[in-house]
Amino acid sequence: MNVISILTLLCLSAATPRAAEVALDVGHTLSQPGATSARGRPEFAFNAALARRLAAELQARGLAVRPINFDGAIDSLVTRPLQAAGADFFLSIHHDSVHADLLQEWRWQGKVQTYTDQYAGFALFVSHDNPDLHTSLSCASAIGARLRRTGFLAATHHAEPLAGKPRQPADAANAVYYYDNLVVLYRTTLPAVLFEAGVIKHRAEELALLDPQRQTRMADAIATGIAACLYPCATARRDSPAAGGASASQCNDHR
User: Fold this and answer.
1) Residue 213 lies in a domain
2) The domain containing residue 200 runs over which residues?
3) Residues near 202 by Cβ (< 8 Å), separated by ≥ 6?
4) CA torsion sign, 38 to 41 to 44 to 47?
5) How far apart (Å, rounded) are the C-alpha atoms in residues 34 and 42?
């Protein structure tokens, strides 16, 4: 190979941006599976199913995926942000419940379960204490907006006192709220969002959240929102500002 060919390859390599990397966390564990659905299913199973579909959709868009807790074995909340270090964005997948005072009892397959038929919809949470709140908010809003355009219901109850501690809206139209003391949001070194896909205590929404085709549509919308947020400056977080690279916040200012 001659010198010109080598220089050409080097130039092409330098000009090709590395894929932005999403640290994708499955909320809860096998031993502590989170909320229980209206029909007695553990939240972790919902989280893992959606995360697997989302990983595929992210990769289809050219984004790298760093799976975290897909096997349900990471009990420490602090460990999750540590495993995400160096990625461009952290997303933790969850499914929601509501305050116990708002639940009613019913029998399903001979067992007493609790449910609500009032509260439903997806929500996204960010923390004021995250080191890159600007990008966290930008990505959360992009995800929420895409989900709404795709036809998914945005939750409104998180700002209501009856639903538990009211959360300050960050972008109410797209169901983005502040939740400052979530470890996976404030202990990270990168932009981070916690996503609640829906309320599994809602009997109708539980069944919808179990539908594989709907899971794929939701994963497609989330991945589209993340790609729109990260692609404008896929390598910004890896480039040193001292070397002329922009910060992730600067890259997102145009949105």
Assistant:
1) yes
2) 19-252
3) 38, 115, 116, 117, 118, 119, 120
4) negative
5) 7
Quickly tell me which residue has 């399903």 as its tokens: 108
Q: What is the CATH number of the domain that holds 180?
A: 3.40.630.40
Question: Mean pLDDT across the stretch 71-87?
Answer: 95
What torsion do the CA atoms of 29, 205, 191, 174 make, to the nearest 10 degrees? -170
Q: Is the dihedral of CA 48, 66, 144, 52 positive or negative?
A: negative
At residue 178, the pLDDT reads 98
Contacts 24+ apart (CB under 8 A), 145-148: 145/174, 145/225, 146/221, 146/222, 146/224, 146/225, 146/228, 147/122, 147/174, 147/218, 147/221, 147/222, 147/225, 148/173, 148/174, 148/175
- Per-residue pLDDT of 100-119, as tens digits, reads 989 999 999 999 999 999 99
For residue 32, what is the enclosing H or E element? Answer: none
Tell me what the mean pLDDT of segment 80-95 comes to: 97
Question: Based on the structure, what is the number of domains in the chain?
Answer: 1
Residues present in the chain in total:
255
Give 91-105 pLDDT, tens digit per residue. 999 999 998 989 999
Asked whether residue 4 is domain-assigned, the answer is no
Q: Is residue 6 in a domain?
A: no
Amino acid at 223: A
Query: Is residue 12 situated within a structural domain?
Result: no
